[in-house]
Amino acid sequence: MAERLDGHTLLISLLATPIRHSKSPTMHNEAFAKLGLPYAYLAFEVGNEELPQAVEGIRALGIRGSNISMPNKQKVIPLLDELSEEAELIGAVNTVTNKDGKGHLVGYNTDGIGCMNALKENDVNVKGEIITMAGCGGAGTAIAVQAALEGVKELRIFNRDDDIYANAEKTVEKINAKTNCKASVHHLEDDEAFKQSIAESSIYIDATSVGMHPLEDQKLIDDPAVIRDDLVVFDVVYAPAETKLLAFAKEHGAKKAINGLPMMIHQGAAAFKLFCGEDMPIDYIRDLLYNNEK
Question: Which end of the chain, N or C, is more open, meaning fewer C-beta atoms within 10 Å of its C-beta?
Fold first, then answer.
């Protein structure tokens, strides 16, 4: 890293808290080094209180871009000059570009793109398909919107009857108004409706935190009859690499059982392209991150 840093190095930031656990600095800096690009990527502990000053810092210092993570994804929107189509529909931003370092800040959301590209990488085509999804928080909303934009025929979102359920209802309204996808929201507590929906779907996406610490011993599907040999199961969780859901899906013969690491890589790759105009060396980064997971 040190030999790449000089007076011409351009900074990319990551604004979130907590953030020291993030794989994004490793991913981006390794990709910059691999391609010989004059960028450095640094993480900053920034919450809602510090966010306005941090965004002004992006403008003032000519920082070329920034990833945005919790709790700032919604709060950053009024601080920006422009939003992409998907960011506007999702109502959250995870990537900001500073055009030519001149202070015009554009917000994007690459989370859903990451999920869709992870499915494509595994030869899963979503166009014209029915998807059942659990969870409609930050990641779930992004995935739902991007799936609709990419031609999913029908999207059925299941969520607990909690504060996020209202967000799911708003997301469904936007999707139905702005896309050709038929979207609906249902209570996850209705186990029979949940099972029936999965039975009628070609893809099941778990966009909840079930399966990651401290819920690593839990899964939303317990009935082996739900898993079919033509069903694709995607879990946004990537640590642990194999959640209880994915192990269960593999055990009972699911067509594919995919964890969240390729989604994380592909959302990063989409942001990387926005930052520097170059394609991330995905195979290299995948090998690096998968080896670190072992």
Answer: C
How many Cβ atoms from other residues are within 10 Å of residue 117's Cβ? 21
3-state DSSP of 38-89: CEEEEEEECCCCCHHHHHHHHHHHCCCEEEECCCCCCCCHHHCCEECHHHHH
Q: Is 36 left (phi over 0), alpha (psi -120 to 50) or beta?
A: left
- Amino acid code (one letter) for 244: K
Structure-block tokens of residue 129: 């398909």
Backbone angles phi, psi at 61, to 5 degrees: -95, -5
Token pair, residue 259, equals 């964890």
Q: Does residue 127 carry a catalytic annotation? A: no
Structure tokens at 124: 């899963």
CB atoms within 10 A of CB 7: 5
Return d(Cα 7, Cα 25) in angstroms, integer: 20
The pLDDT score that the predictor gives to residue 138 is 87
Quote the CA–CA distance of 114 and 266 in Å, as a whole number: 4
The Cα-based distances of 159 to 132, 145, 188, 213 in angstroms read 11, 16, 5, 20
Number of neighbours of residue 118 by Cβ within 10 angstroms = 22
Write the pLDDT tens digit of every residue in 21-78.
888 999 999 999 999 999 999 999 999 999 999 999 999 999 999 999 989 999 999 9
Say which of 73, 174, 219, 244 is annotated catalytic.
Answer: 73
